[in-house]
Amino acid sequence: MAPSPGRLGNTIRLTCLAILFLLIGETFRLPEVALFVWIGFLLSGNDAATSSRMALTGGGMIVIGTGASILCMMFTMAEPAIRLPLMVLLTLCAGYLSSVLTAGMLANVFFFWTVYLLTMVDQVESAGNAIDAWVGNSTDSVIRDSAYLSPEESFLHECLWFALLYAVALTLIIITNHLWGRDPGKVLKKAESDRLLLVADAMDEGCEQHSHSMERLFAASVLGVSGMRKLHDLAVSFKSEAENPAASRALIRYISRISLMATLWATTVNEKRISQSEASPTTPDILQTSSGILRHSARLIVKADDEVALSAFGHDVAANLKRLAKAFAPSPALHPLAREIARSVGIILALSSRPGEVDKSLLPKVDDKPTPLFKPGIAVKQAGRHAAGRLCMSVIICYLIERFTDWPAIGTCVLTCFVVPMGTIGDTTHKMFLRLLGALSGGLAGIFCILVFMPIITGIMGLILMMTPVLFVSAWIKSGSDRIAYAGVQTAFAFCLSILQGYGPTLDMQTARDRVIGVLLGNVVVALVSTTLWPVSVATIARKNLAEAVKTLADMTVFKKENPKAPFDPAQEKDREAFGQAIAAVRSSFSGDALEGAAVSKRLFASDFNHRLLTDIQILAVKISVVVDMAHLSSAIADTTLVALRGWLDRFSQWIVTGEGYNELKSSVPVPPIIPDDPERTIWFSLIDDGIKNILGTLDAAQSNNAGVSHG
């Protein structure tokens, strides 16, 4: 809930968009005004690219799903024996395809909307009151369309109105976001600049491990640059990258690199108790010089001001940095870091100053392979079948409850079944909590406004003034992190359903009550089905991703560059990105681990030990990368040690999955070698050994704390 850059502006934009939808809906008396206003919350993201993409894909699938519902209705309107099995089949397709398709979200939206409209056929058939005609401004001034339309025409009337509403909504969202939305390219540049300034602050303080700036940098380095990569992809799709997109991606890579090197500098000095003034008289010079260049690069990224002079750093910046790094030759612990800092800072300056003219050898190769339609792996297909079974069972139970109780107002329970399931119990519980919290908050806010403000409202301006505070709070939550954003969407939905009942004042509070009951019922059914049929623990996924990350690290340990003098090797960088993505997935999954009960959880350890273990593995990966990147004089002893280290990491990966052979894992740690003619790798192998001991120490502490749950 804390403020963040751009959050207030996005909140104001989202609130104004909802008010615009309200004005259009009330002025032209569109049916389902509450749904129309809520569409802005559902399809709007935190930047223009995300909003446009969601509007085109999500809204487009809803329009297509409406057409599919009409076709299904043409053949099954008078044949419930055909319609009900068809709904079951479509629900199975929704669960399976949303799990196995690369664009699974679109499949889920399409099938969900088709099934949801088909559930309304029974109501239309029995009551014929899908869309009402109005002869006045009050809620009593209504003529049910059953008075002048047949059930078939009534359902068609409703579907066509839904299609029109979504078409208008997605058009308005795209236009407003292009005119007012945040440009993801500018957001990316701001994030890149902020990270460089954070590194510069740490360097100005001498990279002291316990300084405030270094603690902030360490926290940012641990989280990685996955957010920047997402912004880069959005900026490319939004065509807001005026410069070379490959240069932008390379810049993100080296920003991550310099962050890790600065962090490792502080860690190395602390572990080896090195006095920086004794290590080299140029220590302050290289850190302060690098800090100045990084600050200059940060200004170039944001403002692209090529006129700022670099005379303070010398005419040949790269040569000056190499000279400062070479002075660390007597310090085998710091020399590799100084060399890497000098190289990375020089490349960052080149990429930020003239990205269109940068040396192509510094740029990653663009992968032109099309995205596969289906996710690879046999396990994915099995998970898809399980997801289809859970979803189908949940929908059938909720639909039967709604029909047998003759309570169509709780139809949101069916919608809940499609929205809540996330694949694992922890994620499902988190989504259910957000949905229930949003429904309760929006419903209570709606009841409060009906009791206090509705009796004194006489026009549209009064309605806007009453709704704006709640819409603003909902938009603020929606503009936050992914962990809470859905609660804002649900708060707005429940509030709009409670308040916008027709085109005049209302004192009906049953809608808010039924909305909450429907959500509660759907959540209970989903929870029971998810924990009964093929339950999936979030920690199972976390262990799998962590094992894959360690396996990738093992492969990185014995990697050999084709050209040792090249700035980087594409294959090596691909492995490093895969490792970073796996670590990010593990860290993200840990957040849902605490929401699982002990009966289903397969977590490694308690939350604090999990995060500590993950951080230790990340630090070990950086240390290994330093040794692998040492391009001078090959050594048989070093190569043999790296092979042994790879074997140990492979055993560690297997232990993460099976939990067997921990004592053998501890006893098989490779002994750091002593290489007489290579003091740098000698000391860095000892640093790697320290990193492994830190990992084993964390594992010992977790097991002695009895916080673990057996693998399974």
UniProtKB/TrEMBL annotation:
TM region(s), chain numbering: 53-75, 87-113, 160-180, 432-454, 460-477, 484-504, 516-536
GO cellular component, one term: plasma membrane
Membrane topology note: Multi-pass membrane protein
Short name of one Pfam family: FUSC
Chief place of localization: membrane
Subcellular location as annotated: Cell membrane
UniProt keyword annotations, A-Z: Cell membrane, Membrane, Transmembrane, Transmembrane helix, Transport
GO molecular-function terms, A-Z: transmembrane transporter activity
UniProt signal peptide: none
Coiled-coil region(s): none
InterPro entries associated with the record: PHBA_efflux_AaeB/fusaric-R
Taxonomic superkingdom: Bacteria
Keyword Transmembrane helix: yes
Listed name of the protein: Fusaric acid resistance protein
Originating organism: Gluconobacter kanchanaburiensis NBRC 103587
